[in-house]
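Problem 12. The chain below contains 273 residues. Write out its predicted structure in token notation.
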Amino acid sequence: MQNKSRNFRTVLAGYIRQQDQFGHPISLRYKNNSTFKTFFGGFITILFRMGIIVFLVFEIMKVVDKKSNITNSQYRRNLVEDRRQYQIDLTNFDLAYNVFSSDPIITANIDRYVSVQLQEVYFAWSKDGASYTMDVKDLPLDKCPPGRFLGETVQTDNFGLQFNYKCPTTLNTTLQGGFATKEARYIQVLVGGCNQSILNKTKPNLKCANDSDIIKALDVLELNLLTSNQFVDVNEREGNPVKTIIKNFYATKYISIIKSNFFRKHNLLLYKS
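Solution.
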């Protein structure tokens, strides 16, 4: 019995010794091996191979479970020094607006009371800072067709985008800087009383209401401005992890706090004419 146990240990030790990949090279062959192998070296080699196998198994499990690490980084740039320009078009951004009133008669005839302009603006101060130049370009507007907002459907259906909102027919512009920079490029929304020259471009047969009715309409005016935004959904495993959401900015003359914050942050100008 002792001989069998001794033989088993001898065979096991010999097997482990044969696994040694760290054996010292010798010029002559030793027991049919080109290197001198030891039990300790074989033991380390087996541990090394087992470690590789365990690592591969865990990596395969990650692939099967589609696990990955996503690092989100945020950069705050000083717009006074950062002069880079950001190109936006309908492949990466979209916006739409809806002007309405608590008075259903005004809402049904909103174009007779309100004029809305969406404009590309280039603004630049002179070298001495005593004057500035401004180049303004109107963007054509129309009812929002299907497929806007990067093809998003659930949120656009909730807002009734195709029925209640107007969008720029084309969008290909540049954003740069801010109001504290030497140069700035931005989009602005102008909302004011009905202007007949503006109305004639889209509805030449329609006439603006009288001034007193326009002023009353502006006092009960409400505005929704929709803009698209994208983020990475780290839990998405099947489809595209880049998701599109729609932000809704609401303004009304009833709530001065909302109005002032909205105007200051999103460059919306509301005026009476």
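Discussion. The longest strand covers residues 114-125. Students who got a different answer should revisit the alignment rule from Section 12.3.
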